[in-house]
Amino acid sequence: MLRCRDVTELASDLLEGGLPLRARLVLRLHLALCSMCRAYVDQLRKTRALLGRSRFSPPDPATEDALIARMTGRGDD
User: How far apart are CA 40 and CA 50, in angstroms?
Assistant: First the structure.
């Protein structure tokens, strides 16, 4: 039987269709029994769907570095 920790490691593979049949069945059995893991996988599925519909492109590397520096307090204020 899988542990919840295992589910967090396998959830992305499940959603991408990259799990072998046996692992997929064991994971689905765990999800049938564990409401917290079902909620986690559902949240992950919804997040992936929203990100897939995003109209925004990632910032260029210099802008990203400046944002990170600002958020971590290393920017020039």
Answer: 15
